[in-house]
Design a protein that fits this description.
By secondary structure, the protein is of the alpha+beta class. The protein has 6 helices and 6 strands.
Length: 148
């Protein structure tokens, strides 16, 4: 197994088993595991692995719990259509990547793809009907118990 792959597997395992709130702590933990890493190398690994920071904690993409998905939903400020096959989701500043990853995890039928910026997500939908259904689900998730 390649050194980079071993390092990234160890990084994901650490993130899944411990709560880390700073990259410095992660660097120290990885060094204790025998990996010669620096903050920039950890940052590059985060980008490649899709690691996000949610409520101050680093989380590998694909390992969101339902509680974390709920936290991501609370970060949604608005959902609006843009044409027949696009939704624009506004989030709290800095939350778009986390919310987009949570939306991808939901595996909603009709989503062709998502693109996240800092506080905005564009969701391409397969059909106008899918656009409407997805908007309704996202609005319901963002404001549980209310009509969208």
């Amino acid at each position: 197994m390649e050194e980079k792959q071993k390092r990234q597997e160890a990084l994901v395992n650490l993130l899944e088993s411990h709560n880390f709130f700073s990259q410095a702590d992660i660097v120290e933990a990885m060094q204790n595991e025998g990996f010669a890493v620096t903050q920039p190398s950890i940052s590059r690994d985060f980008k490649e692995l899709g690691v996000v920071k949610l409520s101050g904690k680093y989380i590998p993409a694909g390992s969101f719990t339902s509680a974390e998905n709920t936290q991501a939903a609370v970060m949604i400020l608005s959902v609006a259509p843009a044409g027949p096959h696009m939704l624009v989701v506004r989030t709290q500043i800095g939350a778009a990547n986390v919310v987009a990853a949570a939306i991808d995890e939901m595996d909603l039928e009709g989503i062709v793809g998502t693109v996240a910026g800092d506080d905005t997500i564009f969701i391409a939908t397969a059909t106008k009907s899918a656009q409407s259904n997805i908007a309704t689900k996202l609005k319901s998730a963002a404001l549980p118990g209310t009509e969208p």
